[in-house]
Each structure stands twice: as C-alpha cells, then as structure tokens.
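Exercise: predict the structure of this protein bound to coenzyme A.
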Amino acid sequence: MKIRKAAIKDWPAIKKLLCEFPDKLMQKHLPKPSAFFVAIVDGKIVGCCALDVYSKRLAELRSLAVTKKSQGQGIASKLVAVCVAAARKKKIYEVLAISGSEKFFAKHSFHTFHQEKYALLNILG
Ligand SMILES: CC(C)(COP(=O)(O)OP(=O)(O)OC[C@H]1O[C@@H](n2cnc3c(N)ncnc32)[C@H](O)[C@@H]1OP(=O)(O)O)[C@@H](O)C(=O)NCCC(=O)NCCS
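Solution:
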C-alpha cells in the first residue's frame, strides 16, 4: 500500500469512493483535489483523506474514507498519520476533525479537550 498526494486525474476515483458512503456531507462541499492524499493498492485508490488548511493556525482533516473491501487493514490510520505529518511540516498549530468516529480519532490523539480548551461548534446547516 502506498500513500501519495492526489493528482487531478484521481478526482473521479475519489468522488466514486466517497459516494460509497451514505453520509451526504461526505459528498457536499468537498475539499479541493490538491488537499487530498490517496491510498493506493494494486494501482487502485482504496482510501482518501484531505487536509484542508484554513490558516497558519488551523487545518481540518476531511473526507476520510476507505473502500469497504479494504477496511480494517490500518489504511485510514496511515492516511491520518500522513495528513498530520503534512500539517506538522507546515507548522500548523492545531488540526481539527469533525466525525462520528470519535474512538477512531482518539487513537490518533484527537480529543475534545486539551489544556482548558474545547472545540465548540455552532452547526448552522
Ligand atoms: C472510518 C474508516 C475511515 C476507517 O477505515 P479503516 O481503514 O478500516 O481504519 P483502520 O483499519 O485504520 O482502523 C483502525 C482502528 O479504528 C477502528 N475503527 C474503524 N472504523 C471505526 C469507526 N467508524 N468508529 C470507531 N472505530 C473505528 C478499527 O476497528 C481499528 O481498531 P483497532 O486498531 O483497535 O483494530 C472507514 O470505516 C470508513 O471509510 N468509514 C466510512 C466513512 C467515515 O465514517 N469516515 C470517517 C469520518 S470522517
């Protein structure tokens, strides 16, 4: 398995992968193609994750998905690690993930609370 930055030619495969999941938010307002990293097995995209950089201070992990057949092999974990490493390289201070998979993200050091700080959301949608 190899992880690399997405290229424009990967866009149809990324959209197809995200369409596997019923969560409509996964398909709306997607990050730009250049924000994505993709996981490749046997020449095929089996996973993706985007690092959307908002400022020097904040970036968001978005559109994390692994095709059903390839789940449970640590692919999402590697994608998250690569995105976090990319954020670190850019000296970004905090990385946000909004997800129902709290336990998954907790394994990757994403927590609701850190040194007297909470991330507070006002969901308008
Ligand atoms: C969530 C998802 C990306 C995980 O992909 P994956 O490649 O199977 O993940 P990994 O193999 O790296 O999983 C590592 C661990 O997380 C656990 N895990 C996987 N999905 C989980 C979930 N939805 N909630 C909690 N834990 C989860 C696995 O059981 C595994 O645990 P272990 O290390 O104790 O065995 C994949 O299930 C998926 O694409 N889901 C649909 C889209 C989605 O929900 N995206 C995440 C929200 S942004």
